[in-house]
Amino acid sequence: MKFQRIIPILMIALLGRCAALSGVSASSQSLDSVSTSLNSISTGLKSVSSVSGSLASISGSSMDKADVNSIYKMDVRDLTFFYATTKVSSEWEKDMFLTSRKNGVLSWQSDRNAWEGIGEGLKKAGMSVKELEHFLKEIQSNVFAYTNVKKGYSNYQL
Predict the structure, then answer these.
(1) b or e along 69-82 (b: 16 or more beta carbons within 10 Å of the residue's beta carbon)?
(2) Is the pTM higher than 0.85?
(3) CB–CB of 148/121 below 8 Å?
(4) Are 58 and 71 spatial neighbours (Cβ–Cβ below 8 Å)?
C-alpha cells in the first residue's frame, strides 16, 4: 500500500519536533515521567474529542458537509499538534485512526482534510519551512499527501 511508507516518515517528523527521549531507565523517576506524559496525552485527546463532540451537538442535524469537514480537519490539526509537541508520538497513527472513525472517515490516508489538518498541525507546532520542506521531500512520491500537507501548512494562520 502506498501509504505504508508515509506513516513512518510522518512518525519521524513528529518525533523530530519532540524532545528526544534519552534512554528510558528503570528508575521510578523515569517511570513517573512516562506515566505523567501518558496521562497528559489521554487528557489532551479527551479534550479534543470533547470539543469535537460539543461542536457536533451544538450544530445538531443542521450541520452541513463543510462543517463536518472543518471539524474533522480541526481534530486532525489538534491531534498532530499535540503529538508534535509532546515526548510521546508512538500512538499517533492509532489516535489518527480513531479520530477519523469518530468523524465518519473510513480511510484518512485518502482524505484531503486529513492531510491538510496534518499540515496545519505541523505549522501550529512550530515546524519551520525548512523542516516542512524536508518532510515534503520524504513524501513527494505521494502527490496527494504532498499537495494537501503543503496546502494545510501554507493556509493555516497562527
Answers:
(1) bebbbbbbbbbbbb
(2) no
(3) no
(4) no
